[in-house]
C-alpha cells in the first residue's frame, strides 16, 4: 500500500529531468514571466475597447444605441458624485443582507450537521429555495415590504445564505472520520471536535461560498432597487434608462462590476488572514 | 491527564508483578452488531512491553483497536487497564493511526499539545510541557511550522509525540509506519523502538507486516480468519521473540528467521 502511494512522488523526480511526463506539462505556464501574465489579459481588454470604440466611430453600430468607451468614461466622471451617493445605499443594503445571509447560512449548516433530523427536514427546502428566480419574487417583496431597506435585505438574504450553507455542509463532511475517532480517544467533546477539526476543514469551502455570495449580494441589491426605492444604483440605473442615457447606464454597470470585484478581493484578504496555514500548503505544491 | 513523562515513570516503576498494563478478556466483536468479526480473543500487554498483533488486511485488526480504545463496545468480553474495567469508555489509552492525522490548521506545537488542550490545560501551560520534548523526538525547530511543511517521517514523529503527550499508560498503534516509503519506514520504526525502550512504553502495535512485527515486538500475537467469508478471526497463537544482545542487524539473525517462520506457519 505504501509503495503504491509513494510511486507518483518518487517517479516525479526522474521524470522532470528526463522525458516530459504528462504531469510536467503545466510547468511552462507556471514558469511564464509575471510580466507576461499581467500583460496578456491587459492587452486583450485594451484591444476589445479599441474595437468597441472603432465599431461605433465608424458607424457600424449607431451611437444612439451604443455609447463609446470614451463617452462612458466621460459620463462616469460627470456623474461620479451622484453615483457615489447611490453606491453607498447599495453597499449598505449589501452589507446588511450579506451579514444576515452568512449568519443564517452558517446557523442552518451547523444545525444540519449536528442534527440528522434537521438535515432531512431542511435539505429539500434549501435546494428548492434556490430554484425560485430572484427576479420573480422581487416585485412581491416590494409589494409586501415597501420601498425601504427591508425588501432589499430580504432578497439578498434569500440569495446569499444558500452558497454558504452548501459549502459549509460539504466542508464539515470533508473531515476525515479517523480524525474524529482520534479526537474521541482523547475524550474530545462534540464542540471541541467542531472547533478543532470540522470548522477549519470547512474554511476553504466556506470562503469559496462567501465569494459567490458576495457577488450575488450586490446583484440582488440592484435587482431589488430596480423595482422601487428612493436611492441606490438600481434606482439610478432605472432613471437613466428611462431618459435613454445609455452612456450613464454603462457607467453604472462598470461601477457595479468594480464593487463586486472589490468585495471578492476583500473576501480573498479575509481568507488569507483567517487561514494562515494555507500559504504553507501552497508553497509545498 | 498528566504529562507523558509521569506515565513513563509510572510504567518503569510498576514492574511486572501486578496485573498487565492492558488486558483483553474474551472479546467478541462485530461491525454491524450481528455478524461476528472477531471471536473471543484474549491478549495482554505487560508494563514496558511492546507487543505486536499481526494479521491479514481485513481480518478485523482495526476493529480490535477500536474496542480496546473504547471507541466501540464489544458484543461480549472486557477490556482492563491495570485490572480496571474500561470497556467501551474512550480516553484511557493513547491511539495512533497509520495516517498522522495532524490538524492542518494548527502549528506543530499546538498539534502535539492537542490532547492536553482538549483536557482543558491552558495553552501556555501545555506548550511549556511540550517544548522540552521537541529535541528528544527529533523535531527541534519545527514548533512553529505548519504540518504541510514537514516531511512524512517528521509528521509521523509529531503524531507519535502527540500520542505520547496524551499521557496514557498504554499506547495502541494501528499500522503506524505503513504510510511511509520503505526507507523512511525502517528509520522511523527503529527510532520508535528506541524511544519506546527509553520511555518505558507499553504498546500494542497492529501490523500486516510480519517482518515489522518480529523486528519490533517481544511477543507477537497472530490473528487468523477471514471475517468477510464468514470465518471470524481468532488468535491462532503467540510467538515469543528473542532479540538477543540487540547488537548488529536483528533482521539477519537466525532467531529472527525462526520467529518469522513460526508466525507465518500460524497465519496459515
Automatic annotation (TrEMBL), chain B:
Pfam name, any one: ABC_tran
Molecular function GO labels: ATP binding; ATP hydrolysis activity
All copies of domain ABC transporter, residue ranges: 22-250
InterPro entries (alphabetical): AAA+_ATPase (IPR003593), ABC_transporter-like_ATP-bd (IPR003439), ABC_transporter_ATP-bind (IPR050166), P-loop_NTPase (IPR027417)
Coiled-coil residue windows: none
UniProt keywords, alphabetically: ATP-binding, Nucleotide-binding, Transport
Superkingdom of origin: Bacteria
Matches recorded under SUPFAM superfamilies: P-loop containing nucleoside triphosphate hydrolases
Name of the protein: ABC transporter
Protein species of origin: Tractidigestivibacter scatoligenes (Olsenella scatoligenes)
Amino acid at each position: 500500500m505504501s509503495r503504491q502511494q509513494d510511486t507518483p512522488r518518487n517517479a516525479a523526480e526522474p521524470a522532470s529531468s528526463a522525458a516530459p511526463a504528462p504531469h510536467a506539462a503545466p510547468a511552462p505556464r507556471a514558469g511564464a514571466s509575471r510580466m507576461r501574465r499581467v500583460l496578456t489579459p491587459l492587452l486583450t481588454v485594451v484591444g476589445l475597447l479599441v474595437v468597441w470604440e472603432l465599431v461605433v466611430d465608424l458607424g457600424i453600430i449607431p451611437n444612439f444605441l451604443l455609447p463609446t468607451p470614451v463617452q462612458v468614461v466621460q459620463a462616469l466622471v460627470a456623474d461620479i458624485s451622484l453615483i457615489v451617493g447611490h453606491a453607498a445605499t447599495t453597499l449598505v443594503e449589501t452589507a446588511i443582507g450579506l451579514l444576515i445571509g452568512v449568519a443564517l447560512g452558517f446557523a442552518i449548516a451547523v444545525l444540519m450537521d449536528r442534527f440528522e433530523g434537521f438535515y432531512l427536514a431542511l435539505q429539500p427546502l434549501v435546494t428548492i429555495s434556490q430554484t425560485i428566480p430572484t427576479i420573480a419574487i422581487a416585485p412581491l417583496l416590494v409589494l409586501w415590504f415597501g420601498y425601504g431597506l427591508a425588501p432589499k435585505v430580504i432578497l439578498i438574504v434569500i440569495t446569499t445564505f444558500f452558497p454558504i450553507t452548501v459549502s459549509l455542509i460539504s466542508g464539515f463532511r470533508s473531515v476525515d472520520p479517523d480524525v474524529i475517532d482520534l479526537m474521541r480517544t482523547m475524550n474530545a467533546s462534540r464542540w471541541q471536535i467542531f472547533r478543532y477539526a470540522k470548522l477549519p476543514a470547512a474554511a476553504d469551502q466556506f470562503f469559496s461560498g462567501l465569494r459567490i455570495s458576495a457577488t450575488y449580494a450586490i446583484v440582488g441589491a440592484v435587482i431589488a432597487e430596480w423595482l422601487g426605492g428612493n436611492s441606490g444604483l438600481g434606482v439610478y440605473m432605472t432613471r437613466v434608462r428611462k431618459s435613454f442615457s445609455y452612456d450613464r447606464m454603462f457607467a453604472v454597470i462598470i461601477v457595479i462590476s468594480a464593487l463586486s470585484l472589490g468585495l471578492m478581493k476583500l473576501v480573498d484578504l479575509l481568507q488569507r488572514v483567517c487561514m494562515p496555514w494555507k500559504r504553507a500548503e501552497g508553497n509545498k505544491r | 491527564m498528566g504529562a507523558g513523562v509521569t506515565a513513563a515513570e509510572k510504567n518503569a516503576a510498576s514492574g511486572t508483578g501486578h496485573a498487565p498494563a492492558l488486558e483483553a478478556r474474551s472479546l467478541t466483536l462485530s461491525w454491524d452488531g450481528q455478524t461476528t468479526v472477531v471471536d473471543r480473543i484474549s491478549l495482554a500487554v505487560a508494563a514496558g512491553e511492546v507487543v505486536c498483533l499481526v494479521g491479514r488486511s481485513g481480518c478485523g485488526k482495526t476493529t480490535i483497536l477500536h474496542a480496546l480504545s473504547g471507541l466501540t463496545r464489544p458484543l461480549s468480553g472486557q477490556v482492563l487497564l491495570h485490572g480496571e474495567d474500561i470497556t467501551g469508555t474512550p480516553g484511557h489509552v493513547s491511539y495512533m493511526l497509520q495516517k498522522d492525522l495532524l490538524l492542518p490548521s494548527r502549528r506543530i506545537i499546538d498539534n502535539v499539545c492537542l490532547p492536553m488542550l482538549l483536557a482543558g490545560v491552558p495553552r501556555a501551560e501545555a506548550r511549556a510541557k511540550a517544548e522540552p520534548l521537541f529535541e528528544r523526538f527529533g523535531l527541534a525547530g519545527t514548533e512553529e511550522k505548519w504540518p504541510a511543511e514537514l516531511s512524512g517521517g517528521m509528521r509521523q514523529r509529531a503524531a507519535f509525540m502527540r500520542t505520547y503527550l496524551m499521557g496514557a499508560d498504554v499506547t495502541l498503534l494501528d499500522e503506524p509506519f505503513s504510510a511511509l516509503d520503505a526507507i523512511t519506514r525502517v528509520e522511523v520504526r527503529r527510532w520508535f523502538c528506541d524511544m519506546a525502550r527509553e520511555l518505558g512504553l507499553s504498546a500494542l502495535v497492529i501490523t500486516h507486516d510480519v517482518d515489522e512485527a518480529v523486528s519490533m515486538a517481544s511477543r507477537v500475537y497472530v490473528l487468523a480468519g477471514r471475517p468477510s467469508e464468514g470465518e471470524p478471526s481468532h488468535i491462532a497463537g503467540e510467538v515469543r521473540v528473542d532479540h538477543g544482545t540487540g547488537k548488529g542487524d536483528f533482521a539477519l539473525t537466525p532467531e529472527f528467521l525462526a520467529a518469522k517462520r513460526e508466525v507465518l506457519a500460524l497465519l496459515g
